[in-house]
Recover the amino acids of this structure.
């Protein structure tokens, strides 16, 4: 009985460690996604600025 309890406690500790690692991985993933989202926003702004510049150039020709 005592051995069984020790085994269960050991498994609970392992599960707690796994959960902690998963939370850390999730935080890293969220940080990476935030950086990617920020870079995409920057690209969209640059793309919009390029369109505006092109339109202004075309308008100056006419």
């Amino acid at each position: 009985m005592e051995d069984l309890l020790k085994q269960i406690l050991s498994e609970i500790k392992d599960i707690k460690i796994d959960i902690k690692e998963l939370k850390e991985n999730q935080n890293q993933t969220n940080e990476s996604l935030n950086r990617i989202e920020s870079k995409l926003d920057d690209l969209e702004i640059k793309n919009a600025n390029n369109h505006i510049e092109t339109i202004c150039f075309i308008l100056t020709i006419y």
Notes: Residues 2-61 form the longest helix (60 residues). The two ends are 91 Å apart (CA to CA). The chain has a mean pLDDT of 95.
